[in-house]
Write a structure and sequence with these properties.
Length: 215
Amino acid sequence: ITSVGGPTETTLWNIWHHIHQVKPEWRTIPYGTPIANTQYHILDEQLQQCPDWVTGHMYVSGIGLARGYHNNPEHTTKTFTTHPHTHQRLYHTGDLGRTHPHGHIDIIGRTDNQIKIHGHRIELGEIEHTLDQHPHIHTTIATTHPHPTQPNTHTITAYYLPTNPHNPPTTTQLRQHLTTTLPTHMIPTHLIPLHQIPLTPNGKINKNALPAPSG
């Protein structure tokens, strides 16, 4: 079995992962490695290559890149760029990812899930990814809510679906798990277990139907 992916702007499918086995600790299938004549780059804000395990912005280069968006030069300029040092033409996918030491890429989340709290830029997808690594968590949804007493301030809430709803992990256990990987400002204020994930009619997660945190 081979998992394939890639954005439409790069000939639709340009990255794959041959699934020989699914390891027990995996929560998702790796995004994979690029096909021939395609390169994937995980870059920081200065378009410098991120080290292994470090989350960055995902860019694609290669002969499969589209010329741009038809009759939409503004959006073309926003998402297609040329690297200032390598002079490669790049497409910014809008995904956050990181490179695994074995060479494949993992998707962490979307850049539109980035938020800023107390001056810190936070990727909600990274919080979700970290919680999903807990052995007793099946699925995680991270979001924000307005702070009840501090104007223009938000708090982070993480909803999780435990693998065993009759014996979910405690909040203390989850916080200990999170602190081994994430800095303090990325630890959710609220950790709320769910019996099921609310979905929209077309099967996507319905964040508007999630219960509001108390306190």
